[in-house]
Specification:
With 187 residues, the chain is of the alpha/beta class. Helices cover 54% and strands 14% of the residues. It is built from nine helices and five strands, in the order E-H-E-H-H-H-E-H-E-H-H-H-E-H. It has helices spanning 15-26, 33-43, 46-57, 63-74, 92-99, 117-131, 138-152, 154-160, 174-182; strands at 4-8, 29-32, 83-86, 107-114, 165-169. It has a five-stranded parallel beta sheet, sandwiched between helices. Helix 2 (33-43) packs across helix 3. The two termini are 18 Å apart. The structure holds adenosine monophosphate. Adenosine monophosphate (AMP) binds next to helix 2 and helix 3. Residues 11, 33-34, 37, 54-55, 58-61, 66, 87-88, 90, 94, 135, 144 line the site of adenosine monophosphate (AMP).
């Protein structure tokens, strides 16, 4: 049995930074569907060609494609000790796809990252300047916030009903936020 830990939150909330730290410290696989899709785009695979314009515009890649990519990733050896899902699920059908894996890959914890919108915009624009990430632009940010509210935020209720949610105040020092998450892995 390999437990899944879901990091849920709007773009710019710091999920990737924290997921990397937690995965390294606790020997878990770090699965970022955004990173995986960006790799497909840069290597020009069929999936990458479909995903490119959607990523740039801030829209979601179709569920069936992302679900297939994720399921294949979970079969890789490094997931046997468990994994952090960073950016998946983002829609109700994606969340439901995990329910069917419950015996092998149960969802153990869900962390909901909370950051106010002004701070998010500041962080994303700064990241865009530093990394050149093509969707970290003003136009795309607006779409990504809308998509988050409409498609992803309902997952908080979905997982609340299962009593799996831990809310994380994700404003402040990286180390303090890390400590507020890591304590759940030491229980
Ligand atoms: P992220 O790096 O998690 O912010 O994701 C960047 C972009 O990749 C998103 O804006 C979507 O276009 C796409 N993406 C990442 N994860 C998913 C997902 N679970 N479902 C659909 N699209 C995704």
């Amino acid at each position: 049995m390999s437990e899944l830990n879901i990091f849920l939150g709007p773009p710019g909330a710091g999920k990737g930074t924290q997921a990397l730290k937690i995965a390294t410290e606790f020997g878990l696989a770090h699965i970022s569907t955004g990173d995986m899709l960006r790799e497909h785009v840069s290597s020009g695979t069929e999936l990458g060609n479909i995903a490119k314009s959607l990523l740039d515009e801030g829209k979601l890649v179709p569920d069936e494609l992302v679900i297939k990519m994720l399921l294949e990733r979970l079969n890789i050896e490094d997931c046997k000790n468990g994994a952090i899902l960073d950016g998946f699920p983002r829609t109700l059908p994606q969340a439901k796809s995990l329910e069917s894996l419950d015996k092998e890959f149960p969802v153990a914890r869900v962390f909901v990252f909370e950051v106010n919108e002004d701070e998010l915009v500041k962080r994303i624009l700064l990241r865009g300047e530093m990394t050149g990430r093509s969707d970290d632009t003003k136009d795309s940010i607006k779409v990504r916030f809308e998509v988050y509210k409409q498609d992803t935020q309902p997952l908080v209720d979905f997982y609340n009903e299962k009593n799996l949610v831990n809310v994380i105040d994700a404003v402040g020092e990286v180390e303090d936020i890390y400590n507020s998450i890591s304590r759940y892995f030491k229980l």
